[in-house]
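pinned: reference chain
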Amino acid sequence: MSEVELLMVNSGAGCTMYTIQFLSDEMSEFEKFISKFKEISELNPDFQAIMQFVEQILSNGALERYFRREGKISDSVVALPVLKSKLRLYCLRLTDKILVLGNGGVKNSRTYQEDKTLQGYVIDLQKFESLLKQEVRRGNVKVTEKEIQTNKTLRL
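pinned: its structure tokens
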């Protein structure tokens, strides 16, 4: 069982962005994504497009039109960008004003399920969302219109 913390990345007029960090890791999931892809020149246009979407979402909100649906019907897993791209960033779109940024990678298969690495990122977000909902029911986590309030390390 892994321990995970929810960290705020940024808060803007339209959205508050979070990411998760496994306590066994030195970087958060979103930091890992950035460090993997910011220097790869052939993926730079795709990386820059994703980062521009992140900035727009911060200002305008986590509106459905910015995302590609991923995961299952019962979860909130989405991917950036909605445009044609080789690169995917997986996220949890909890509301129009709350987004949890995860990790991502190069999509070389038709679906994320066909790639073990991408599937792992989606499963981590699905497990985290399930755990978050459980902790909200228990009263350990409070979700307001634009914020997730917790001071607890969660066990994934």
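why pinned: Residues 3-155 form one domain. The chain has a mean pLDDT of 93.
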